[in-house]
Amino acid sequence: MAGDSKELQLSLRVYNILQSLGCPLVDGLYLREAESMQELLCSPSLHRTDILKWICTSICPSLREKFSTTKATKNEDIIQELTRFGNEMMLCKANDQDLIKGLAPPLRQLAFQEQLLMVIQADSSIHSSQKSSSGDDSVKNDDLLGELMFHDHLSDLDMLLNPTCNPWPAHIREHLIRTQSAHNKKKGNHSKPRDFINRSEQHSRLGSHGEESLSEAKALLQSTQSTLEELHKECEFLQSDSSGSAAVLSPCVLKVAISDMSQFMTAFGHLYNTDFKGYCQRAPPALSSGTSVFQSVHQLLHSCNKLEALKQLSETSSSLTQTVQQLQTDRRYWSKGEKHTLPKQLEELKNRYVAFLSLHQS
User: Fold this and answer.
1) Residue 137, Cβ neighbours under 10 Å: how many?
2) H or E element: which one contains 173?
3) What is the pTM of this model?
């Protein structure tokens, strides 16, 4: 029921839009029920095809020539042309002829027709706004022209149409005054040359004021140029190398570096506010008061290392003693078959070593 009511509402809306746009194919119809409107717009018929033809030709008037050359008996050609136009408008697929024939679901047909009618409404609103704006412009132009041609503004208009050069030097002003006087005498114009002199003096005063402004602007430009030169000298990276090659940090590279740094700072600020800020605001951890325990453990480990070293030293000394004793007791035969023993110096060295070991063990 909800789907039916939506289809009926959409049928009523499409039919009302056709009437408001002045479609001649619905002009003589007096449909009052939404079901009849839906049957007209969604059931396959020649009348429905003619309505689609009128909608498409209203959007694209060049289609009238194609439809006029197509014979009335070739309805398939008209269907294909309407399908191609709908595909160009991106409202249907290239082979979606069921939508044009009226075999598609009613809701899809009505949505397709409404989208086409919205294009016509948009075009008509644009044309009406252009017409109204052009009418307003013409009224504004007429008012402006009337204002300019008002007798109080004729003198200003004459000055705009006949401008004078500003300023002239004194010798050229005198020449212009004489020329203007001779010209006025030839034409029978009795205007006073004094008016021209006053105007020239006024222009000269304006010119002197302009010269003062020009000198001030020139001084400001010179000071700015000197300031820029000093800054350029301070910025060594903007200068060229002695070899003639461009500096590594050119203004373009500096600009890119500043942009990258700005992006990095923005990313770091985001990470700081989202992840790091909570950890950075915590209090530092309190140191443990039981440091003596670690100190005693360290001393014990150091003592253990000493005992292990002494044990290894004792084993080494005993091994050395056995070797020496073996050398003393074993027989060694040298040249001519005579038996030789260790010299007395080796015995003395052994005694000193044993005394050293006993001293360290105690």
Assistant:
1) 10
2) helix 170-187
3) 0.38
